[in-house]
Design goal:
Elements (H helix, E strand, L loop, with lengths): L1 H15 L4 H16 L15 E6 L5 E7 L10 E5 L10 H9 L3 E5 L17 H15 L5 E6 L1 H12 L1 H7 E7 L15 H18 L7 H6 L1 H12 L6 H12 L3 H12 L14 E7 L7 H9 L5 E5 L6 H4 L1 H21 L9 E5 L2 H42 L1
Parallel strand pairs: 3-4, 3-5, 5-6, 6-7, 7-8, 8-9
Antiparallel strand pairs: 1-2, 2-4
Length: 412
């Protein structure tokens, strides 16, 4: 998620300059198209009331906000799913998955990583992937100290999971049943290309932290600028977050979530992500069920990063989703939720039958969210019919008005 942060920082400056007429026209057209698709995305309400809210205290004293959802009939010692969000995001980014998992009967723990969401701000020197791994351990010890676990991490959250695996191998060995890596990477190389290629991308990556640090003292003054350039900002977020048509409400929800992250926090974590190398950590997962999910059109953590994870895990399942970008869990929520539920089912069967994961073949599947494609087509078709009816009605009114106008001219 590092490049989202930099893209948004650049986007704030672009919004401040909101002058480019061509960009404004394109953004307005994109916004109009997204308004048509408001019925496509599920669950307009992005709020969620947890059963329990708690605070886990990190090794350096930072207070980490966590929430727990517990289904009816759940008993201590049963499975808990822990969801770790990505860079510049927070707990709400998992809204669809936590609902689906809860409905399926699983206890769910979600948490805000340090300096994100409702967790405390961290000292810059502790904004590291290593520290995030220790943070996840503290959250687990506080929120779910017993019973089997399934760990799910998106983007930086996946990196956090890898750090946990490296630094707390005994916990993983004894309690973790399965792991899901969603749109993430085990290595920071190339994570700053922003889809522009290494030359331009490297320059953006180097300038990003400095730019964000300079903007940080002025962030509160950017609110009016954000409102003035909202359509441009939304278009930037749309480009780097999604790869299929999404609704205006989803893009606005995503924009507000990302821009809630202070610029200095973005700047602090970018070097940590760029310097990431967790390939060795993956070796501890060869006997665990692992799911790797990525969007084929992800500009921030391109598919090759997911493929590199899969190559090191012989028994893993790799799902590549067409028409999907970096925020795949929001763009294709039902699909991602179903993949996580299938992962849990596979891991449970393996455990019951004593099937060694390392002996299973590696699986790579390409999936298209056909249901979503159909909803998009229906929404656009309905809008076309509505527009045609409006044009016909307008033409009819004009035709009726013409004889009267002619009589008025004759009378004069």
């Amino acid at each position: 998620m590092a490049r989202v942060g930099k893209a948004i920082g650049i986007g704030a400056a672009a919004a401040a300059a909101a002058g480019a007429a061509a960009a404004g026209v394109a953004a307005d057209r994109a916004a109009a198209d997204r308004r048509i698709l408001d019925a496509v995305d599920p669950d307009v309400d992005f709020t969620h009331t947890p059963d329990v809210e708690l605070v886990a205290v990190a090794t350096d004293g930072v207070k980490l906000h966590a929430e727990i959802d517990t289904p009816d009939g759940w008993a201590p010692g049963q499975l808990t799913v822990v969801l770790s969000h990505g860079f510049c995001l927070a707990i709400p980014s998992w809204i669809f998955q936590r609902r689906a998992l809860l409905e399926a009967g699983y206890r769910v723990v979600v948490w805000d990583q340090r300096s994100h969401g409702r967790s405390d701000r961290s000292e810059i020197e502790n904004c590291t992937i290593e520290q995030l791994g220790h943070d996840l351990r503290v959250v687990i010890d506080t929120a779910c100290p017993e019973g089997p676990l399934v760990l799910v991490g998106h983007s930086m959250g996946g990196m956090t999971t890898m750090s946990l695996v490296r630094h707390h191998a005994e916990l993983v060995r004894e309690r973790v049943l399965a792991v899901a890596f969603v749109a993430t990477s085990a290595n920071g190389e190339g994570l700053t290309d922003l889809g522009f290629g290494p030359l331009v991308g490297r320059a953006i990556g180097q300038a990003g932290p400095r730019l964000l640090s300079r903007l940080a003292p002025h962030q509160r003054w950017l609110a009016p600028v954000r409102r003035a350039g909202k359509t441009i900002e939304d278009s930037i977020v749309d480009k780097f977050s999604f790869d299929s048509p999404v609704s205006e409400k989803l893009v606005r929800f995503t924009s507000d979530l990302i821009l809630a992250t202070p610029f200095e926090v973005m700047a602090a974590f970018i070097p940590a992500i760029q310097g990431l190398d967790e390939y060795e950590s993956l070796t501890a997962l060869v006997d665990k069920e692992v799911l790797v999910v990525n969007g084929e059109g992800d500009l921030l953590t391109p598919p090759k990063h997911s493929a590199a994870i899969v190559d090191r895990l012989p028994g893993s399942e790799h799902v590549v989703v067409r028409d999907a970008g970096h925020l795949i869990m929001l763009e294709h929520p039902e699909l991602v939720s179903s993949q996580i539920l299938e992962l849990i089912d596979r891991a449970t069967v393996d455990l019951e039958l004593g099937i060694p994961v390392a002996a299973k073949p590696r699986v790579r599947r390409f999936i298209t969210d056909i249901g979503r494609r159909r909803r998009v087509r229906r929404a656009r078709r309905a809008e076309s019919v509505t527009q045609a009816r409006r044009q016909a009605s307008k033409a009819a009114r004009a035709k009726v008005a013409k004889p009267g106008a002619a009589r008025d001219r004759g009378a004069s």
